[in-house]
Amino acid sequence: MKAFTLSLLALALISTSCKKSKSNGTVDLPNAELKTRVVTSALTLPWEIIYGPDNQLWVTERSGKISRVNPETGVITPLLTISEVVSNGEGGLLGMALNPAFSTNPWVYVVYNYGSTYREKVVRYTYTNGTLNSPFVILDGIPASSIHNGSRLLITADQKLLITTGDASNAPNAQDLNSLSGKILRVNLDGSIPADNPTAGSRVWSFGHRNPQGLVEANGKIYSSEHGPNNDDEVNIIQKGRNYGWPNVEGYCNETNEKGFCTTNNVVEPIVAWTPTIATCGLTYYNSDYIPQWKNSLLLVNLKASKLIQLKLNDAGTQVAESTDFLVNAFGRLRAICQSPEGKIYIATSNGNQDRIIEIAK
User: Fold this and answer.
1) Distance (Å, whole) CA 185 – CA 190
2) Average pLDDT, stretch 233-255?
3) Which residues on neighbouring strands pair with residue 226, listed in sequence order?
4) CA distances (Å), 52 to each of 116, 148, 212, 221, in order?
5) Which domains, from first to last, does the chain contain?
6) What is the pLDDT of residues 127-146, one digit of tens each?
7) Contact indicator for 345, 39 with CB cutoff of 8 Å
């Protein structure tokens, strides 16, 4: 385990709020001095990281491994390797969610790709005596591909499971309400279809998505980050039954050939978009007093641009008021992010060799 004395903000883009650096390489900001520390560098292509109710970091790796990592010591405790997982291209074992009522029902949900014809399924395990057992299939038969599999999971405040799916290399399916591709799906925790979904008997909550890989609930809203093609990576506010445009619309409704489709199909525009793309990925909402500069912000990690972005929201949580970059090229590709109850941030890299979990703390 290697510790870094450089502060997080020393690695940020120049900001008017920065004061003079101390001799030890840290940077003072009003109310905080932040540092990074490598918790472990013994992972290979981690995809999800969750701060669990046991004060351990729960991690998936694309090869099929699920582990717990001690955030203080970096010790990795394997829980399960799912032998059915097939890691093809960007596929493999991907998202994970823990039941918020973990002490009552210690359920762990994962989504992964499998099979020679390559499909995707969501499976619920039960955590007992340090192991994951009793697999229960929540949803199967989701189209998969070597790219564009979505696969972020989120259990919402109303006890529903949201599942992001990519277009699985078949872009028109994102507009097809009979396809599970290019959607955000919503099911009950047992996999059944909620009665208040937009269309009776359908798992589809929203559609017209290319490859959403970030998902968080805050301010009574669902925020999602999504990969664009060569342009228009996005962050969206997800609304019930709404169309997000792909493949007919890329980013905002600002091109002549997009405007008519947007009007006719009631397309929701992103709250922020990036061209050229940065490969938006894991997303969390920060509102802790531990790092006051980050309050009421979305924290977004990305792959291609290799940085963490703070998206400061307006008071209503409906717009991005300010954007600041951190950790630019400091740790390579960043895949996932989570936070502890105390307010520390943990991020996971996706470089393919000696991948790391990094702690951001005061």
Assistant:
1) 14
2) 98
3) 212, 234
4) 33, 27, 23, 22
5) 9-361 (2.120.10.30)
6) 999 999 999 999 999 999 99
7) no
